[in-house]
């Protein structure tokens, strides 16, 4: 679930950046949040399998 949310945020960032040329801070905040959530997803996934 966390990975899916991260993927959606990253895709929205790419869409906003490439399609609308949005250069505000909000779109970059979405990217950072998406990347942090993706890292947490991988860290939690490796802990639950051990």
Structure overview:
The chain is mainly α and 50 residues long. It has one domain. It is 86% helix and 0% strand.
The domain count comes to 1
Average per-residue pLDDT, rounded, comes to: 75
Shape: elongated
State the distance separating the first and last CA atoms. Answer: 19 Å
The SSE string, one letter per element, is: HH
Tally of helical segments: 2
Give a concise summary.
The chain is mostly helical. It has helices spanning 2-19, 25-49. It contains two helices and no strands.
Task: Pick out its properties.
50 residues; mainly alpha; 2 helices
Topology overview:
Layout: H1 2-19, H2 25-49
